[in-house]
Amino acid sequence: MGDEQLHGYRGKLKEALEAAGVGIGDLLRFESGDGSFEGSLMPRVETADDWHVVLKLKSGYNVGIAFGEGAKVVRLGQAEKPEFRPPPLPEVKAGLPKVSIVSTGGTIASRVDYITGGVHAAMSSRDLLSIVPELSDIAAVDADILYSTFSENIDAEQWTGIARRIAEKVKEGAQGVVITHGTDTLGYSSAALSFVLRNLPIPVIFVGSQRSSDRPSSDAATNLLGVVSTAAHAPFAEVVLGMHETTSDTSIVFHWGTKARKLHTSTRYAFQSVNTEPLARYVDGKVEMIAESYRKRGEGELELMDSFESKVALIKFHPGFQPSTIDWYVDDGYKGVILEGTGLGHVSTGLYEALRGAVKAGVVLGMAPQCVWGRIDMDVYSTGRELQEIGVEPLGDMLAETAFVKLRWALANSDDIEEAMELMRRNIAGEYSDRTLYTGRFG
Amino acid sequence: MGDEQLHGYRGKLKEALEAAGVGIGDLLRFESGDGSFEGSLMPRVETADDWHVVLKLKSGYNVGIAFGEGAKVVRLGQAEKPEFRPPPLPEVKAGLPKVSIVSTGGTIASRVDYITGGVHAAMSSRDLLSIVPELSDIAAVDADILYSTFSENIDAEQWTGIARRIAEKVKEGAQGVVITHGTDTLGYSSAALSFVLRNLPIPVIFVGSQRSSDRPSSDAATNLLGVVSTAAHAPFAEVVLGMHETTSDTSIVFHWGTKARKLHTSTRYAFQSVNTEPLARYVDGKVEMIAESYRKRGEGELELMDSFESKVALIKFHPGFQPSTIDWYVDDGYKGVILEGTGLGHVSTGLYEALRGAVKAGVVLGMAPQCVWGRIDMDVYSTGRELQEIGVEPLGDMLAETAFVKLRWALANSDDIEEAMELMRRNIAGEYSDRTLYTGRFG
Known about the structure:
CATH topology of the largest domain in chain A: Rossmann fold
Number of strands of chain A: 23
CATH class of the largest domain in chain A: Alpha Beta
CATH architecture of the largest domain in chain A: 3-Layer(aba) Sandwich
CATH superfamily of the largest domain in chain A: L-asparaginase, N-terminal domain
Strand order of the largest sheet of chain A: 9-6-10-12-13-14-17-18
Oligomer: homodimer
Structural class of chain A: alpha/beta
Largest sheet of chain A: 8 strands, mixed
Strand content of chain A: 15-25%
Shape of chain A: globular
Largest interface: A-B, 99 and 97 residues
């Protein structure tokens, strides 16, 4: 057996599989303290441990079984290799709303190759409709591959590219646009497009998935069905991010593009709205609005403000953070820095001098919370007041990631620092939550 | 009226107060659509808005009242200035367990000066017992001021200083040590001491508060009572962080020192355990253990491994992150970098070359999640596998902040990179959670 044929297996388990003469796709019986399972051996693709064997059972389910003391592997023969053969494309039904799907890559646009174990980051319109044929009952779907990349490689160039493709789709009469995108930087991109797309007439929905579409636990199909239906029928014309609301498949939740953060590395409901309620959810085949106030679908003329400054950094403060690091950013020509401060918006006093130098050099400095939740308040402690005197702008309850994206956008779409600061302070796409008014007990 | 006497007031509200001839400490009547309130004017110290007037009512409570259209201010005279006069120290009762409180500063060790509005970051043993006299019923308390600083200024020098003071207290027979500390970097410090204090015989409890001790909503007294009682009686000998479990005063929860993160800028239960359950809670005057496995109180001889490398950085990856930034850290002589990657532990391929250069220069690279929750898994996608080939070490479910502190510790307490990496991989103070074993459905 070649290594390639035991893709993903390591250590003692791999030795046992080799000893039994078993390769990927072979039928085998696995006996352990937990019982006996028959199935075909699958490649390992999504876990870090080396003590689970993955079998595809006759029922079609994949199971992972722990390989412990006393476990035995018996080769039974060669199983039918799993194959991916798309059914013929469904017919386009007349009279359905037109929804455009623009693929940029990521897990939702991927499938596992069972021979190499690799995850392919590409999916055509044909693939999509063959995996989720129900889409053709919901909308007249067209699907393009714009990019085919893992989202950790997406930057301003792609944000601009996505914006221009959306503008084309709007011009062609799309009643909603869905952007499939890797989840790693999905929140950064949804924030970016929230600022770029001015006077938006239709819903623009970013969607990803945490498990590839050929896994029984995949969220790709339910996420796609929910977002395409919502793109076709929802009353809002906002940039949102749609993903599983809980572990259950029954509800897809739509976060404001500027308020969503990936908060778990692997669960299907990894994205959560921070400091605000989501905009809407899709449940029982219907869109339920949660927010009371939002931009309505309309006939407006879409405008793009689609440039981004590249010399902007997001810097997380930590104990022992050296002022020379700030100096380097200034010397390297950075035009803006979002500081992720501690607590209500603090950094050590040892950085004051370097920050003064940055301000003097014309670098815009904004403060966002490393706490994730809550609001920056630089009026409480002397540190915050001193940082404001130096020129650090408190950015309320904006997510640090959104603040970073917004500063790149504000600097590229203004003539001077004052105008950029004015954009930073204005609530443009729901990035600031309403302040909670109270007249009762204080504190 | 001088500015100082209207400390914290701004805009229209300040103008109205000036027009009425009212200063801090004056008795006034405030009339608005919500009713009429009489009280003495308090300085503003803890809110970012400029439309609330803060009054101390006769009942002693402070209220914040919105200043809106049509509101009126009438000066009634001069109120008695609030004063802080400590009662005599309670007697030390015989036979109680000895608990040492070491103060490093922060809100828990502060009180507001009602004349200047400033928050004073210092509290003596006398202050402490006069604010929370019940402490003397729980334990024979001694309290030292070790530092008097906001925690954003605490770094390795203070971590070492705290460790040495704890060692003295242990030698003097303390049955528990409580460290009061600002909440901003409380999680970094509790992680640091978790690695420093080897063979610990007693509980060491970090505690902070989110509201200063003279505010009706302060968590300072309940937190102190809970942690002192726990330090005196708990069965564990671990470094923990004790704070409010919920908004309610009824329960103080003890997070593992390496697993706690400040996740809200201002709530009293801002700290949460990430990827694991807390160790214990204090409720109804008793310590309830949550964890099944922990280090027991004992007679061991405390050892300190109390040095930290200063040339270590925590770098949060973001879209558009430039490779030249990595190059600068290498050129500046950094010995270690924790990357806060996206998703399962990724950065853009554009950084590969710079990371290869860092590894070649002997810089230790570790990967932690910017998602906060979940586990790094660099075996799933090609990006993760490629980063591992370059030499980036996946750090499981360790918090990024803990990984950063641990790398500073590991590099200072080992002879070479291999030994440091071995320390990084070993579970030393609960920083890695146990893997979840399962034998059922896969995915």
